[in-house]
Description:
Blueprint: H1 2-11, H2 15-25, H3 27-32, H4 34-51, H5 61-70, H6 77-84, H7 88-100, H8 105-111, H9 113-129, H10 132-142, H11 181-185, E1 191-198, E2 203-209, E3 212-217, H12 219-223, H13 226-232, E4 242-243, E5 251-252, H14 255-268, E6 273-274, E7 282-287, E8 300-301, E9 306-307, E10 314-316, H15 320-327, E11 338-341, H16 350-364, E12 367-370, E13 383-388, H17 394-397, E14 400-402, E15 405-407, E16 419-424, H18 442-448, E17 453-457, H19 466-478, H20 483-497, H21 501-504, E18 507-511
Parallel strand pairs: 1-7, 6-8, 7-10, 11-12, 11-13, 13-16, 16-17
Antiparallel strand pairs: 1-2, 2-3, 4-5, 8-9, 14-15, 17-18
Helix pairs in contact: 1-2, 4-5, 7-9, 9-10, 16-19, 19-20
Amino acid sequence: HAYxxxxxxxxxxxxxxxxxxxxDKQREIVYKNLDHGAMPWLxxxxxxxxxxxxxxxxxxxxxxxxxKSVVNRKGNAMMLDLFDGENxxxxxxxxxxxxxxxxxxxxxxHDNHLAMIFSKSLITKSTLECNPSKxxxxxxxxxxxxxxxxxxxxxxxxxQTKFRDINGAEYNLPxxxxxxxxxxxxxxxxxxxxxxxxxxxxxxxMAFLQNHFAFGNLSLLTKxxxxxxxxxxxxxxxxxxxxxxxxxxxxTKDISELEQEAEDLKNNLSDCQIMISDNANRLLLVxxxxxxxxxxxxxxxxxxxxxIGSLLPTCNIISTEVLIKTNFEEPFHEHPSCAFWSPLNCSxxxxxxxxxxxxxxxATYNFALNKQNIPDRPIDAEINIAxxxxxADISDTxxxxxxxxxxxxxxxxxxxxxxxILFVCHSGSFTRPDYDxxxxxxxxxxxxxxxxxxxAPMWSLNTEILPxxxxxxxxxxxxxxxxxxALFQANMAVxxxxxxxxxxxxxHLFGNPFLQIAEKPILEIKEETL
Length: 530
């Protein structure tokens, strides 16, 4: 058994034949020791099945039935159901009860391995059953619950889960009652929400629009190697209008060349498709951890064959729980306070140039400016803007750069606020390491410390756009527009000058799309309903 377990790592699916050969040859000995050997053999076969969902187990079925017949269900129900793909929602609730007692976020991301497996199976089953409650329960895990998981469980009326016994029978979430989901999410009119979740063998989606759910599969997007696309294409996106080759004069691309480059990028990303309703005015996305690294504005609408970032306001709301949590935080005041930080006392003239181009905007909206590399106190206005260099590995390091040196203590630069705008290259990027079940991103830090919304570039940011972008964005926000609409208007203003998606689609919105200057909403929902 130990030998075959090791062989699985080198032979993969082919080890099933080895297992069947061994069991056929040693049938009498195996059956004589069923009481002690049944669960280890089932675990080994399940591990292969888990990694190869379409594996042919016909030769092993007689043994599987024999193993199951002697296993005591008491104490082994979870593993048996895991093997058969049954009762996923019940066991996921059991696991969530246990995970809720995990005080440390890092432990949570390591301890939820079984929950991940049940969630993938539940996403597949809930898609087939068109069951929104089960899909939402599964996405609690697959969309990375560590965004809202504090070191100590939060005492938040809308986020607090309720459970009475360790078996999970009383584990409840507000979103399990889909009748109040729209109210809790505070959707407006034709806002569409699209959950993309990874099942056992492919990506599935659940769409919610005008109190109606729709389900389906994303067959093309499933085939895309997101990690490879991120490392080979997305991280190298860059706008170059002027090209200088050694020994040659500067060459400036004309509009037709830039249009062709945009078309080439779209063709390169042609499999990254989703379907959006023609009636949708805004699109709110919840993405599975395995596709989180892909920029949502570069997803392609299947019907119109265009980047969704050019079609309608979009936002990565991270998860249903993040949106509900941030919906009940304070909106902007009528005249929101604003602050800007950039490492101006370094030897790089770049930051002084950026500041000079933005000076009129700062004056118009009364920005507090900080010039020190490490300020005396972190900027803590309602709208905070940080401008610095960022590396492609910023999702792991979480460092800013100036003078080619890392600024490690970024917590001394950015304090608390409601909206954070990062003019820092790659600061909106995500990575999904193999060693834990969580996304690594700078965005998570600021959502967890209390920001409702974060705007950040998912690749290299072209600083030429900043005056146009920021002036449009601030005008829209201070006139009472939602941050999602203000971002879209600012991006489209950039698009009028720069037709390349590398430029106009670079800045992405994460968190709450409905942050605005407004009265705090009051919802009349009975407590027992939640």
